[in-house]
Amino acid sequence: MGTVNDTALNKSDAAPEQPGAPSDRTATIAPAVRLADVAVRFRTKKKDVTALEEVSLDVARGEFVAIVGPSGCGKSTLLKLVAGLLAPSAGGVALGGEHVRGPRRDIGFVFQRAALLDWRSARRNILLQAEMRGLPAAGARARADELIRMTGLDGFEDAYPHELSGGMQQRVALCRALLHEPPVLLMDEPFGALDEPFGALDALTREQMNVELHRIWRETDTTVLLVTHSIPEAVYLADRVVVMSPRPGTVTEIIEVGLPREREYAATLASAEFRSATGRIRELLGAAGAHD
Amino acid sequence: MSQRVLSPTAPRKPAGVAERTRPSPRRRAVEAAEKSWRPLALLAACFGAWWVIAAAGWVESYLLPTPGATLDVLLEQPGYLWEHGWVTTYETLLGFLIAVGVGILSAVLMVYSSTVEKTLYPILLFAQVVPKIAIAPLFVVWLGFGIGPKVLIAVLIAFFPVVISMVTGLKAVDPEMLQLSATMGARPWQTFLKIRFPASLPHLFSGLKVAVTLAVTGAVVGEFVGANEGLGYVILQANGNLDTPMLFAGLLVMSLIGVVLFVLVEIAEKLLLPWHASRRDAAATTTL
């Protein structure tokens, strides 16, 4: 299986990896994330379910890619493949030019639910990342404080998860995912829970989170893969938006968003480019049907 | 120098953080009274009924002593009851602590190894189904009249709730938390110490509360079967002499030991898991 995957991965590589070549050199050539003809099948008692089929995607270093699609199209599965939390049934996944064979440490992962430890304060939840990795404590603490400032959590460092709003919990999760300055950030509907029960108030939080996330991304050279069900969110944040079809999930189309790197929120939403991109995605999802 | 001066470095609480204010002592007293007057009233009613029935002579006094007579025994022979009460407490605590240690260890092994689980679980279940009280005489034959059989029965009876609650707790951990741990490159022991074990503690403590009260029962049963000290012995002696006031006094002390141990476990829970207690209280008030 390994050889098949490697062949698939190197097929479109202009300069195939030299044996023994330094990995940091290949990392600059290879895309940050590469999915080559990936398929994922789950076996349930009644039948086999194909979650993903023939998915190929290259994400360049420092690029922001959003993935949208109907519920159950395997968007989250795709992120877990990249993180190495799940093995593909066919095809290959590479991260920074390296074949993904198991859980990867060189990523930051943000789940739909914040997944914080109840018994740790916001700061100590963020520092869990450093403790598990054995990073030097002083440096990690300084970095955590920097992230806390960046995400507007200052004053809440010592609050426990149950004392924080949903949006704040999600910011803590974001800080935790960024603490070790991962080259790749994977986010699975990170703000999806924010617009569930209380509409207007949390829509505002979501907007803030979008603006903050975009700023953080601009200020670092992180590659971001974001799964979302909000089309405006995808277009506002991403360089490219991957539109997926219902199960079995395949890539329907990849939309290039022609917006400038600096994006003022209100002006961006009012721009013609924004409207044409969101319109196009809506059309694609509408044609695919079953979008919520 | 007074420490109560408002220091300029006092952390400011921004709006949005749920206030963790300390209620004033007066407010707390009022809350405690509101919470406890109903059970206290019921208890008083039961004592009242006991007193009326016994004092009115509807039941012979050798069958049911008055509360006064029972109280007299408690006041006249405190040394005797204290001495035997301490023996029972000691056996109970020893049995409880061994049950907790062995229970936690078995739970961890069962959760981490399916082979251990498959081997141990049926035996555990069998051990739970065998009536421990029925095998108590056997332990006396094996281990003699010392504290051995009492502690062993207390261990056996308290062990099951500890194992079950700990296994449940360890298995209830959020799977996303474990995946996150994998992306952090955590070693299994790190995941256990920093995520799984702390996450299981709320479950464990609900098991410990059951276990500690059962341990008292275990120790007393052990004493019934063969002992020359302990509250079980006191009750058997009083029973033989038709000394019902002493019997009732023994029962009261025994219940008191159970209540005190239960409260101690609750206090330990509050101290060790403040995050859990406050969240649970918050949940309770919102559902009301």
From TrEMBL, chain A:
Residue ranges constituting the ABC transporter domain according to the UniProt record: 33-271
Biased composition (Polar residues): 1-10
Coiled coil: none
InterPro entries: AAA+_ATPase, ABC_transporter-like_ATP-bd, ABC_transporter-like_CS, ABC_transporter_ATP-bind, P-loop_NTPase
Record keywords, A-Z: ATP-binding, Nucleotide-binding, Transport
Molecular function GO terms recorded: ATP binding; ATP hydrolysis activity
Annotated region described as Disordered, given as residue ranges: 1-25
Protein name (record): Putative ABC transporter ATP-binding protein
Lineage: Bacteria, Bacillati, Actinomycetota, Actinomycetes, Kitasatosporales
